[in-house]
Amino acid sequence: MDCLTGWDEFDESCYKVMTSFVHSKKLSWDNARAVCSGYGGDLVSIENEREEDFIRSLSSNFKNDLLWIGLNDRVNEGQFVWSDGTYFNSSVYSKWKIGEPSHTAGKHDCVGLKNNLWNDQPCSWVRFYICEKRKGGRILSYDSDFLEFDHRRL
Question: What angle do CA 63, 61, 147 make, to 5 degrees?
Fold first, then answer.
């Protein structure tokens, strides 16, 4: 078994929709990413339709909620990147909602998944989120009060 209990396996990664975590509350994009990092992963990077279909099956109970994913344009407005460093090329695969990305006042820098479509939103909004980690990766732990990580092996 390559994925932690409660995580779902697809290809070479493990995934978890974080809605019933220790924090069982919605988090900003940065704090959501910090929790995913604590598991040795990051917010999910969706590279193709097969992976999108898998994510849709995991998040079907939350399709009306916006769930944070790793896509963002925080560094350069309009130049989207995946938070884990995976290359993003919208001509290869993207799933934007009509009219998105909106770049409203330059404040919509983080992307969420809602109704199986991508939508850019302010990173400070609190949402549930989807984590992805490579199978067999290192697990970190963190202080849940401050979302600060230490790098112990569990």
Answer: 85
Kindly report, residue by residue over 41-62, the tens digit of the pLDDT: 999 999 999 999 999 999 888 8
Determine the Cα–Cα distance for residues 129 and 113; give it in Å rounded to an integer.
Answer: 9
Per-residue pLDDT of 85-105, as tens digits, reads 888 988 889 999 999 988 776
Domains belonging to the chain, first-starting first, are 9-144 (3.10.100.10)
CB neighbours of 43 closer than 8 A, spacing ≥ 6? 29, 32, 33, 36, 68, 69, 70, 83, 84, 129, 130, 131, 132
For the chain, the C-alpha Rg in angstroms (whole number) is 15
